[in-house]
């Protein structure tokens, strides 16, 4: 049920891949619980449930492009399309979710008298730089990424407020968590009824796993070396698909035949809770490009401790020795030693319980709704003086 005192929200995103679609759907779920919400986006997956459940304005189905030139052209065209759409919208608040470098529509929305919030999903300039360095000379890749970062910083400065997932993420983005226009505990949530402890931790085998895209950014090559060198009583399971799937099959053929390594392949999101419930430890040696991977929250909700790189918002959730463990080095030998040390601990069941408790307390749907309610209240239009007992927060 929406609350009439809160402003309506128009969410604006860049072209959405599957992971971005899931995060955006979660955000829309939270916002729609308290106010009216519409989505402006591009290239939404055809089977997305957003199409049926939310008001949608789709700018194009062409995606972001396969080359830098095409991507830059579509980036500019999408901004122009966004400006035209925003000029016709009635929502008082425009929330740029992930699209934090879309400076032109940010400025246009401000000029139209709308409240503008920006919410980064991760370190987009770094992600782009890493991708571009595989196709372009390194100086050019760094220069282009630097330009995107400058646009993003200008967007932060032009907006009325910036929402980040956690205080650590705010600091990584050079934002002060205690600044009045920074909201450092932006709502993320896990469907705690679906992602729950189905298999008691004490009954789980010594299965260590990775869940996500099988590509360079996720440290898959390092994990392959780790999987080959773990003790015989430990099974390493790769859950997901990607460019390195065939490489893994060839590189770890002997270990797969021996049953010490498993390639589960792509799994439907509905089957992810069962996979997480079968793990004793989830390992995510990611590069510092993501804000707060949803997989980490889902694992903790399933009572599965996480061993993850301390990037962006991760240390605020993966708390060393309390809900999980932080990776000091992505070197295979260090990762292997860390995994073996964790599996030898006698307090892993307590850590499993702590992780679930953290999600229920801070990352349930109800907690997420309360956080966004508090944010939007700061931008609600003043009520008439006759509104008894009302005070602007």
From TrEMBL:
Gene Ontology molecular function terms on file: glycosyltransferase activity
Record InterPro entries: Glyco_trans_1, Glycosyltransferase_grp1
Location of the Glycosyl transferase family domain: 198-356
Pfam families in UniProt: Glycos_transf_1
Domain of life from the UniProt record: Archaea
Name the record gives this protein: Glycosyltransferase family 4 protein
